[in-house]
Amino acid sequence: MKEFTERTLKSDKRMHRMTGLNLTQFLTLTQALKLVWKKDEEERMLQCPRKRAPGAGRPSGFKIEDMLLLTLIYYRHYIVQELIAEFFVTDQSSISRIISRLQPLIEEAADPMLKGFFDRWKAENKDKPRVSREEFKQNQPELWQIATDATDTEINRPGKNTIQKQYYSGKRKTHSIKTQITVSVLTERILHVSESHPGSVHDKTVLDSDGIIQKTSEQTAHFLDLGYQGVVDEHPAHYLILPPKKRPQKELSTLDKEVRKATARIRVKSEHGIRRIKIYRICSSVYRGRLPKFNQAFRNVAALHNFKLANPASIITKKAQSCFFN
Questions:
Q1: By residue range, what is the domain housing residue 179?
Q2: Residue-wise pLDDT tens digits, 179-226
Q3: Are residues 154 and 284 in the same domain?
Q4: Is 135 found in the same domain as 82?
Q5: Which residue of 134, 249, 307, 308 shows the fewest CB atoms closer than 10 Å?
């Protein structure tokens, strides 16, 4: 366990291939996770009733950096936990417990602003006077233009017939789980991740149930694809932009074609966000875990994406590396 972590911490290239983070980013995230872990442990120790004294039991031998490393390897490559257990010289049950323990904490450590971003923004700006679009652009550049899109992750076929019908996507021709993200066009930061829905649920239904339009400003230019037909008529006060739709047996005009190209250049930012999330194979391979736990894993990967944007790649010296763990 110790040897594997030490070898990985000696090579920036090895760390990046293992976890999707470079060495600097991993060390920075480790320090943030330590603070979140300490707070969570203090709350856990105060839970009542307790059968054993706080801190009782045999120490696991895993440090925070070990636990974070194995969890990120699991997210990045989505290999079986038995193989990860071989890397860390332990058993599969220990790996499973560590991943389950860290899963609720990674999002808070990587990007605490992701959860409830639009709810906080709406509460903070509820009583503020309306400004012009130019002033809004200067004051809220990240919300000047946003793009929303949904993505499917394939799952194993559920055993019960009633459940498998819900998760079967006629579009994908497979069983899947659907999650929607909203991305800032300017910064490419993921601002919002919806709840995950069965693959049979339409994109517009996910949008309506999530209520993301009501949470955004009326001055925000919100770009959507043709899967969200009808949303413009339902929210006339909001600035919603969909590409022109081609009618049966009719050709698009030259203007409509240019508009489609222009909107596609902006909407591709959400596609970029989805592509970066799906670098982590837990979000792109066939998901094998319990379906209720998928959304938190997806949110964690989205938070890691934002973390990498906020902490761009840089070279770290051996002296600085040693300071992180002393």
A1: 117-288
A2: 999 999 999 999 999 999 999 999 999 999 999 999 998 889 999 999
A3: yes
A4: no
A5: 249
